[in-house]
Design the sequence.
């Protein structure tokens, strides 16, 4: 037993002298180093993941900013279009209001030398005011007209009205049609300049409005002759030109 102990002691001293450490201690030190390496690697992985997440969020944020700017641009374009349409609509409404009493007359015919017929020429002879000829507003196809005259005659009768032109005018333009709720018979309206027949217009109650031009040729007296058989016909948007 003593021999064994002595041998073990000698071997231990020899190992110590050669610089060999306790095997148990060596194993423990290796495990500690491995744990530190593992922790370091894990920290790097986590840090890299965080950096990637931050970069991804920044990219998404930049993309959202670009999309928002594009949406703002589109909204502005739409807003400009709406404003333009509203201005055009307002302009159309203003023109419509200004021309409410003569909306069926083409714009090119409202030249600077056009005059309202009923303001410069009033009937002075013939079948005048009352049931025969009126300058009051009237309706045709649901639209009220103020610049014009309406005419009526009894059954199997022909009435007329005279207007003094004083040799000043070259032509007369107007829209002619059936006055609403005034009967259903045909109307015949004729125009004479200085007792010479210029034009005869025949209208039916269901006809639409028609635009007519009468050449006055600087004549002196205009006679409008009408046979309407208890039905009223209107001459609207009456403009006379020098």
Sequence:
């Amino acid at each position: 037993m003593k021999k064994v102990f002595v041998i073990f002691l000698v071997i231990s001293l020899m190992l110590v002298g050669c610089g060999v450490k306790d095997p148990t201690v060596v194993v423990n030190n290796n495990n500690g180093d491995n744990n530190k390496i593992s922790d370091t690697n894990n920290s790097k992985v986590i840090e890299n993941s965080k950096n990637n997440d931050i970069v991804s969020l920044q990219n998404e944020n930049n993309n959202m900013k670009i999309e928002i700017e594009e949406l703002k641009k589109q909204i502005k374009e739409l807003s400009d279009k709406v404003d333009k349409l509203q201005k055009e609509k307002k302009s159309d409404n203003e023109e419509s209001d200004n021309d409410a009493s003569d909306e069926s007359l083409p714009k090119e015919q409202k030249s600077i030398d056009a005059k309202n017929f009923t303001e410069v020429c009033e009937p002075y002879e013939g079948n005048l005011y009352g049931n025969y000829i009126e300058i009051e507003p009237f309706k045709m196809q649901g639209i009220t007209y103020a610049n014009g005259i309406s005419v009526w005659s009894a059954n199997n009768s022909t009435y007329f009205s005279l207007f003094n032109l004083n040799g000043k005018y070259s032509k007369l333009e107007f829209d002619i049609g059936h006055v609403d709720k005034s009967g259903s018979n045909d109307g015949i309206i004729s125009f004479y300049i200085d007792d010479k027949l210029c034009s005869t217009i025949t209208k039916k109650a269901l006809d639409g409005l028609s635009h007519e031009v009468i050449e006055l040729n600087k004549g002196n007296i205009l006679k409008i002759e009408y046979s309407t058989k208890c039905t009223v016909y209107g001459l609207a948007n009456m403009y006379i030109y020098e």
Notes: Residues 23-28, 100-109 have pLDDT under 50 and may be disordered. The two ends are 155 Å apart (CA to CA). The chain has three helices and 13 strands. The CA atoms of residues 165 and 238 lie 14 Å apart.
